[in-house]
Design brief:
The protein is α/β, with parallel strands linked by helices and about 625 residues long. The protein has helices at about 5-15, 20-30, 45-50, 55-60, 90-100, 115, 125-140, 160-165, 190-200, 205-215, 225-235, 255-270, 280, 285-300, 305-315, 320-330, 345-350, 355-365, 460-470, 485-490, 500-505, 565-570, 590-595; strands at about 70-75, 100-110, 150, 175, 370-375, 375, 385-390, 400-405, 425-430, 435-440, 450-460, 475-480, 510-515, 530-535, 550-555, 560. It has an 8-stranded mixed β-sheet with strand order 9-10-14-13-12-11-15-16. A 4-stranded parallel β-sheet has the order 2-1-3-4, sandwiched between helices. It has a two-stranded antiparallel ribbon with strand order 5-6. A hairpin with a 2-residue loop joins strand 5 and strand 6. The longest helix is centred in the N-terminal third of the chain and has 16 residues, at about 125-140.
Length: about 625
């Protein structure tokens, strides 16, 4: 039976979203047509669309029998997770042709790496890169040459951006195609220890670089469970990737077979087939709730408390942090993957991975089974694991699916729902007289779920590091970092704070972080109230805190409260001013307009406001 809270939250999302979802579906219906989409193009348009192809390709695209599959890729060879995608287009094109279709590389989207830009000026572009990716995806698909799409991407803002952009073409079937994680290197615990030693000046840059290079050592995603790997899990929980695709290492036989299978499936579910499965049908309210549950049960990235809201809005679905918090109250934490434990995603996969998780959560009534997916009807398709099948007539590896494990292979990494690591999910809504915020509790020791201490207020993460080095924070302290929201500086992640705050905590001090900025999937052992709304720049009360004010961060009750009476707090002027140096340099001047219009984090930090009211023209939505 379906869990009562899951049912109640889903129903209120459906009710809240009724008008905006109807507007979106009407837009999708207006774009849908029978037959190849390119048949709407004039002869001159179409000739431009296949001019570069050989005679066989021109004939295929001029006719109406073969569906044309768009390839939209985030490939670059600087980003380890996306470097393997460079080999994909020829594989996808050959597989699509063999399956009775055609494939064209429709366009590329940018893919920046937060690991490279962390603590650097370029990080100020990170959140808004999601919206740029969405727009680039739309540009790639705007030629109207296509009957399905394959979106190639893995990391932080890239997958949410591809989802948002593809949802603007919700009449097309869309399949997401990842590259997989790198093999395991230095343990995440050893890497974290090296960072803390460096923060204390006990090792130098050369030793730190050696440690980092042993951790990030080959093609593929970073192996800790951050936003990139949370993306992959979400795509399976929401039925947008082939089952068992997420955590297969790059350049393996199974990885190649899965890549070809994605192209074959894109042909099979195109608008020219009997199994037409448009993205708008897959990405609905139930799928989105399934994604939230998957995030919570796995202790996933706090970034998705922003991205899932933005993705939902792109499909006319309105979710908020109350929905996530209520679901967290009934979702057991069944996985421990770093930073929520010591294992990495390769260990998680070996223990049973996503198929085991989905089977357990379905049995507990915590997922919607009755959903559409790109793999077929029902989420139970995703309790299957992918294995190599017999070679085809050309000697190429194929993939087949078999039931996933019915027991965890390592209960220190993955557990049944009935004996979970914790009875609730890893995220909690915080609220009080400082606003609303999110906290990630899954990696924090329960003895530190409640912190009450004097604050020290800063307006940049660099100022915090300087104060740490000067010995000014060697005490119980709640560090408050202002002006880190979307409108202030684009909301960069604040990972430079993790090593020094971790050192203070290890010294025995009661330490916490409160900020209107982000921490993301690497949020670790230091209790943090992040993404505080409203942000300081827009009048949020966080800006009125003074050094020495007592603040309570209580993750057990969901309380974020300053011990300052309301009249005093309201009468104060902001404690510090916003540092304007972020407005120029490293391309940041190009994003000024996005900073001005960005929504708050609970509304998705969205710089792409969407108004679909213009489609209320009587079109019947039936997808």
């Amino acid at each position: 039976m379906l869990n009562d809270t899951l049912h109640r939250v889903t129903e209120r999302i459906i009710e809240r979203s009724a008008e905006t979802r109807a507007d979106y579906l009407a837009q999708v219906e207006a774009a849908r047509r029978q037959g190849p989409h390119r048949s709407e193009l004039s002869c001159g348009n179409l000739a431009h669309g296949f001019a570069a192809h050989d005679a066989k390709g021109k004939k295929a695209l001029a006719g109406g029998e073969r569906p044309n599959i768009a390839i939209v890729s985030a490939y670059n060879d600087m980003l380890s997770a996306h470097q393997p995608l460079g080999d994909y287009p020829p594989l996808l094109k050959a597989a699509a042709w063999k399956a009775g279709g055609f494939a064209q590389f429709a366009g590329g989207v940018p893919a920046m790496c937060d690991g490279v830009t962390q603590g650097q000026p370029g990080m100020d572009l990170s959140l808004f890169s999601r919206d740029v990716i969405a727009m680039a995806t739309a540009v790639a698909l705007s030629h109207n040459m296509f009957d399905s799409a394959l979106c190639l991407g893995v990391c932080d803002k890239i997958v949410p951006g591809l989802v948002i952009g593809a949802l603007a073409f919700g009449h097309l079937p869309v399949i997401f195609v990842p590259a997989g994680p790198m093999t395991s290197g230095m343990t995440n615990a050893a890497k974290a220890q090296a960072r803390q030693l460096y923060a204390q000046g006990k090792i130098g840059r050369e030793e730190l670089l050696q440690a980092e290079s042993k951790s990030y050592h080959s093609p593929g995603t970073c192996t800790f469970y951050g936003t990139a790997n949370s993306n992959q899990l979400l795509m399976e929980f929401m039925g947008l990737q082939l089952p068992g695709t997420s955590f297969v290492n790059p350049h393996t036989r199974l990885r190649g077979a899965l890549t070809r299978a994605a192209a074959e499936r894109a042909v099979a579910i195109s608008g020219l087939s009997d199994d037409y499965m448009p993205m708008a049908r897959v990405f609905d309210e139930k799928a989105l709730v399934n994604g939230i549950v998957g995030l919570l049960a796995s202790g996933g990235s706090t970034n998705h408390t922003i991205h899932l809201v933005a993705m939902g809005a792109a499909a006319g679905i309105q979710i908020n942090w109350d929905d996530m918090s209520d679901l967290s109250d009934v979702t057991p934490l069944v996985a421990r993957v770093y930073p929520n434990g010591q294992a990495d995603v390769n260990h998680f996969e070996a223990a049973g991975g996503i198929p085991f998780m989905i089977r357990e959560l379905l049995a507990a009534g915590l997922l919607h089974e009755d959903v559409h997916t790109i793999a077929g009807e029902g989420l139970s398709n995703y309790t299957q694991e992918a294995v190599l099948g017999d070679p085809d007539e050309n000697g190429l590896d194929t993939v087949r699916w078999q039931p996933g494990r019915d027991a965890s292979m390592d209960v220190d990494v993955l557990r049944p729902a009935a004996s979970a690591f914790a009875p609730t999910g890893g995220l909690r809504l915080m609220q009080g007289n400082l606003g609303r915020a999110m906290t990630k509790t899954s990696a924090v020791d329960p003895s530190r779920h409640v912190i009450e201490a004097p604050v020290r207020v800063f307006n940049s993460q660099h100022a915090v590091v300087d104060a740490f080095k000067a010995g000014e924070l060697d005490r119980d302290v709640i560090v408050v970092v202002l002006y880190q929201g979307p409108r202030a500086n684009g909301m960069p992640e604040l990972h430079k704070l993790l090593p020094p705050l971790g050192v203070l905590q290890d010294r025995g001090f009661r330490v916490a972080l409160v900020t209107d900025g982000r921490m993301s999937g690497a949020s670790g052992k230091v209790p943090s109230a992040i993404q505080v709304c409203p942000e300081a720049l827009t009048g949020g009360p966080l800006a009125k805190l003074r050094d020495g004010d007592i603040v309570t961060l209580d993750a057990t009750r969901g309380v974020l409260e300053a011990h300052v009476d309301s009249e005093t707090l309201a009468a104060r002027e902001p404690a510090l001013v916003c540092d304007s140096s972020h407005e120029i340099g490293m391309g940041r001047e190009l994003f000024a307009a996005m900073r001005r219009i960005a929504t708050n984090p609970e509304a998705g930090g969205n710089a792409l406001p969407i108004d679909r009211s213009v489609v209320r023209n009587g079109v019947t939505a039936d997808v």
